[in-house]
Write a structure and sequence with these properties.
By secondary structure, this protein is of the alpha/beta class. It has helices at residues 44-51, 98-101, 162-165, 171-182, 200-209, 222-227, 240-249, 268-277, 303-308, 323-335, 354-362; strands at 5-11, 19-25, 32-41, 60-61, 66-73, 85-88, 126-128, 131-135, 145-149, 153-156, 190-194, 214-218, 235-237, 256-261, 278-286, 312-315, 345-349, 368-372. The protein folds into 2 domains: 5-169 and 341-372, Medium-chain alcohol dehydrogenases, catalytic domain (Quinone Oxidoreductase, Chain A, domain 1); 175-316, Rossmann fold, CATH 3.40.50. It contains 11 helices and 18 strands. α4 packs across α5 and α7 packs parallel to α8. The protein is globular and about 65 Å long.
Length: 375
């Protein structure tokens, strides 16, 4: 099958907004596949590009949390066939580098160029009026049709609805793994989750599934605080000071075992607040990202207390798990009724309404907005 055009949301300046345009789409190369897109989550990471918090090469098609159906495959593609249902992985998995060999596919060396917007095989697949257009995360899921390298896709069970499966491509794996792998939550733990959007709410789910006695959700938005208990939060607060005080009140003044920072735009102050809130041998997991020009000094961080109280600050990328391991397992939990996905989706948008979707995200009206390509 051939598909030489696609409608896509293109970013042409920073700061800027998404421009929905028709662009030219190349045929798949030998290791690539053509995918008819079904859905794409509106992740805050793509919004970092529009605000300029995360500089990227332009022009670029956004989106990295997507799902769709394979419509044609290149001559060297293995493990994927026409008709397969797939979700995207914004860190490609080569399978042969040192990190993939260790089972750390989320750190695959192929991820080094994802902000450049080129394909793993090199070059770009989209063009307009002779101009090359890049793809966010080597993906660009904000498009009705897209060409991906096979190492950027994970095949899933076709019985799972694609319009919800897309969430596992980023937000669910990232948040859930931040609690289970990054914080290593154990039964009986006290866990603070700072920020309860599309990533943070899954950190809440992960902490609850791991057996935490208290999952303390922190978010200034009333809607998210209202929703958090349905995902496993035991207490909710509007700010970290209240959460910190509560955690200390139930631990003889010690504090939380871990704090997961999933705020949309993280500052060093947030990390310092989380560091103050954890107990001896506690862990702060930094999952949300900051502006690239955020300074290096963390208010509240004290080397004496870090050493003497054995506290740790842990960065977490993609839930600290290989996508090809994590994604199928999370979907199995969904199928078994042990993981909420449908409930994460607050609003579905057409591609033309993408800027409205992000405005709703900033206003705190969504846990996760999703582009539905059938609309």
């Amino acid at each position: 099958m051939r598909q030489d055009k696609t409608r896509a949301a293109v970013l042409r300046e920073q700061p800027g907004k998404w421009s929905v345009e028709e662009v030219d789409l190349d045929d798949p190369g030998p290791t690539e596949v053509l995918v008819e897109m079904v859905a794409s989550g509106l992740c805050h990471s793509d919004d970092h590009a529009t605000t300029g918090d995360m500089p990227t090469a332009l022009p670029i098609v956004g989106g990295h949390e997507g799902s769709g159906i394979v419509r044609s495959v290149g001559s060297q593609v293995h493990g994927l066939a026409e008709g397969d249902h797939v979700i995207t992985s914004f860190i490609p998995g080569c399978g042969v580098c040192k990190y993939c060999a260790r089972g750390q596919g989320n750190l695959c060396n192929s991820g080094a160029t994802i902000l450049e917007g080129t394909q793993p095989s090199g070059g770009m697949k989209m063009h307009k009026n002779g101009e090359d257009i890049r793809a966010m995360g080597a993906l660009g899921t904000f498009a009705t049709w897209q060409v991906y390298d096979q190492i950027s896709l994970v095949r899933i069970d076709p019985s799972i609805p694609l319009d919800v499966a897309c969430l596992v491509a980023c937000g669910v794996q990232t948040g859930y793994g931040s609690a289970v792998n990054g914080a290593d939550v154990r039964p009986g733990d006290v866990v603070i989750v700072m920020g309860c959007g599309g990533v943070g709410m899954n950190a809440v789910q992960g902490a609850a599934a791991a057996g935490a006695a208290h999952v303390i959700a922190v978010d200034p938005q009333p809607f998210k605080r209202e929703q958090a208990p349905s995902f496993g939060a035991t207490e909710v607060f509007a700010d970290i000071a209240e959460a910190d005080a509560f955690a200390k009140s139930i631990t003889n003044g010690q504090g939380a075992d871990s704090a997961v920072v999933t705020i949309g735009v993280v500052t060093n102050e947030h990390i310092g607040q989380a560091f103050d809130a954890i107990a001896k041998a506690g862990t702060v997991v930094v999952t949300g990202i900051s502006r690239v020009d955020e300074g290096g000094v963390i208010p509240g961080y004290n080397a004496f207390s870090a050493a003497m109280l054995q506290k740790r600050i842990q960065g977490a990328l993609y839930g600290m798990d290989a996508p090809r391991n994590a994604m199928p397992r999370l979907l199995e939990q969904y199928t078994a009724g042990k993981l909420k996905l449908d409930e994460l989706i607050t609003t579905r948008y057409s591609l033309d309404d993408i800027n409205t979707g992000y405005a709703d995200m900033h206003a705190g009206r969504n846990i996760r907005g999703v582009i539905d390509y059938s609309l």
